[in-house]
Design goal:
With 388 residues, the protein is an alpha/beta fold. It has 12 helices and 12 strands.
Length: 388
């Protein structure tokens, strides 16, 4: 189970030839002619926010930004790793990818040195949306109900399990229904193929579900339920209590106590040159007013609203931009350096494991890696974050 914290924010890794592109870092920010971002499916919060940022870059710098929709974390990161995308608008999957767990513990992946630019926490929250016609009022009522899971998306699935854990439920207590993508899962809820799906309250599919004949509710996660929150944070410690005041069926007049974490988190690989990341981050910071109202949740990208001291490091290029915005401290610097060291420990452990003649069968390979990972982190006096 997840015991570590979650992840944090933004980025970029280019699939275009950044090497030949000149950047300037004063008022005259220079961006390349084209950029590609990846995000969740069309209409989701992450996709809509990425489009809003892209429009700002087009309007201010003439940069054409293409946003590629992808149904799960693996599909979002693949173009980024292949340098065919400049940034990925991720969620908690950023942390799982860094740690090399779940789908990222396979031979094809391993620990990914992802680093962040900017992330958003706004008026929305993230939890299990439930079809209103099920009669479910509290999370415990989901026992025996159909809950959606997405193949290849450990973040979504682990988040769903964390919310279920709030009510003392596990995957065995519900009927798990697998879908190929996030969008397909929510279509399944509308089409009565599933009763509950994880997402942000402002995601487009949730609004479609709320307007459908089935309707949509968000069973609350009251902050005063300390035992429930303790169970939830054993599975997803990156969640924190927050009252949602925007989203499907939610308003400032009708808030719901739920849980949240930064999303979307724009991520890049550590190998991305600092000047490139700086240019994009700086553009997002100084032109915040141009896109903050472009999509629900975009307002949370403000430099002074960044989640501090999370479990994935901020890229040095983004650090420079945040320092210039007066939003960086010595304490954050020390914390960030420790996170970079953690990525180095994980990378070394993965390399050593690959040389140890590991089992070829997928499950045995993953089991062996998780043991090697735990040993390496313990030796470095770093928390595991996951039960072996």
């Amino acid at each position: 189970m997840l015991r570590g914290l979650l992840v944090l924010a933004p980025a970029l890794v280019a699939g275009i030839s950044f090497a030949s592109t000149r950047y300037s870092f004063a008022e005259d920010i220079k961006l390349p002619a084209t950029l590609t971002f990846t995000a969740y499916d069309t209409g989701t919060a992450g996709f809509n926010i990425a489009v809003g940022v892209g429009k700002m870059m087009k309007d201010k710098y003439g940069t054409d930004v293409r946003v590629l929709p992808a149904g799960n974390d693996v599909a979002r990161l693949a173009p980024l790793r292949a340098k065919r995308a400049a940034s990925s608008a991720m969620g908690s999957g950023t942390y799982f990818a860094q740690e090399g767990v779940f789908e990222f513990g396979s031979k094809e992946w391993g620990p990914q040195p992802l680093q962040t630019l900017l992330s958003t926490v706004d008026c929305n929250c993230a939890s299990l949306g439930v079809a209103a016609d099920t009669g479910v009022k509290e999370l415990k009522d989901l026992k025996g109900k159909r809950v959606g899971f997405v193949v290849g998306s450990p973040a979504l699935n682990q988040n769903s399990l964390a919310v279920l854990a709030f009510a003392g439920l596990t995957q065995k207590d519900v009927k798990a229904v697998e879908f190929a993508s996030y969008g397909a899962m929510w279509k399944g809820l509308i089409n009565n193929d599933v009763d509950a799906a994880f997402g942000t309250t402002i995601t487009g599919p949730a609004k479609e579900a709320e307007a459908s004949p089935r309707g949509l509710i968000w069973p609350p996660l009251p902050a005063k339920d300390k035992e429930g929150w303790a169970r939830m944070q054993k599975v997803g410690s990156f969640f924190f209590p927050q009252a949602a005041t925007c989203g499907a069926g939610i308003s400032p007049q009708k808030p719901v106590e739920l849980g949240n974490y930064p999303y979307p988190i724009f991520v890049a690989y550590a190998s991305q040159p600092a000047d490139q990341v700086y240019a994009v981050t700086k553009a997002m910071i100084v032109n915040y007013d141009a896109y903050k109202d472009s999509a629900p949740g975009a307002g949370g990208l403000a430099a002074d609203r960044q989640t501090k001291n999370w479990v994935v490091p901020v890229h040095p290029g983004a650090v420079k931009a945040l320092k210039e915005a007066g939003q960086w401290s010595d304490a954050q610097e020390a914390h960030n350096n420790q996170l970079i060291k953690r990525q180095e420990v994980l990378a070394a452990a993965w390399a050593d494991y690959g040389k140890s003649n590991p089992a070829s069968e997928d499950k045995a390979f993953l089991d062996g890696w998780m043991k090697a990972r735990a040993t390496a982190l313990a030796k470095a006096n770093m928390p595991n974050g996951f039960e072996e």
